[in-house]
Amino acid sequence: MPPIPGSGLAKGLAVTLRTMTKRAHTAQYPETQPELPPRSRGVIGLFEENCTVCMLCARECPDWCIYIDSHKETVPAATPGGRERSRNVLDRFAIDFSLCMYCGICIEVCPFDALFWSPEFEYAETDIHDLTHERDKLREWMWTVPAPPALDPAAEEPKEIAAARKAVDKAEAAAAAAAAAAAQAADTTPPTTPEADA
User: Fold this and answer.
1) Do residues 69 and 114 lie in contact, with contact meaning Cβ atoms separated by under 8 Å?
2) pLDDT per residue over 22-71, tens digit each?
3) Which residues pair with 43 in a beta bridge?
4) Is the dihedral of CA 72, 73, 75, 76 positive or negative?
5) Residue 42, class by beta-carbon neighbours within 10 Å (0-12 exposed, 13-18 middle, 19+ buried)?
6) What is the DSSP letter of 128?
7) How far, in Å, CA of 36 to CA of 147, rounded?
8) Hey, what's the torsion of the CAs at 12, 13, 16, 22, to 10 degrees?
9) What is the DSSP string of 9-32?
10) pLDDT above 70 as % of the chain
């Protein structure tokens, strides 16, 4: 069936009339802070204790705005006769937010959960050089990261927990079967009497 001529115009005018009758709502931004969604991308916070200087975030960053410097340190052996180990120590971790495009790739690829999104967005500067945040500043942003949302009670159990629970249940079933077999073996052995031995 062909559309009625002028139906598009009528729909457009209906939307206009509906909008005209609603009162405009203007948020007074500096005085009233906006209510941001929980997963909003404001600034990146660094949880320094989890960083192992694996350099994955810097390598995967499409803008090359993450700068990491480190040095190797020798850790003495934990036990006598053991060998010494070497580990990377973080010297510098900086993100240049004048280059960052907030894609979140660095946060996604971090295998040790060292980078997090913070909803803070008010960090404008008058000098572009001040937009390079060093690790102390990134650490300060970490305190503004919201807690993760609670798990959905109807969601299925994670694979790792399900596998661990299955292994525990299997071990408990094996232990119960062994205990039952031992109890049954104790019940079936005939009692020894002194007359039978004589």
Assistant:
1) no
2) 888 888 888 888 888 877 889 999 999 999 999 999 999 999 999 999 99
3) 118
4) positive
5) middle
6) G
7) 14
8) -120
9) HHHHHHHHHHHHHSPP----TTTS
10) 94
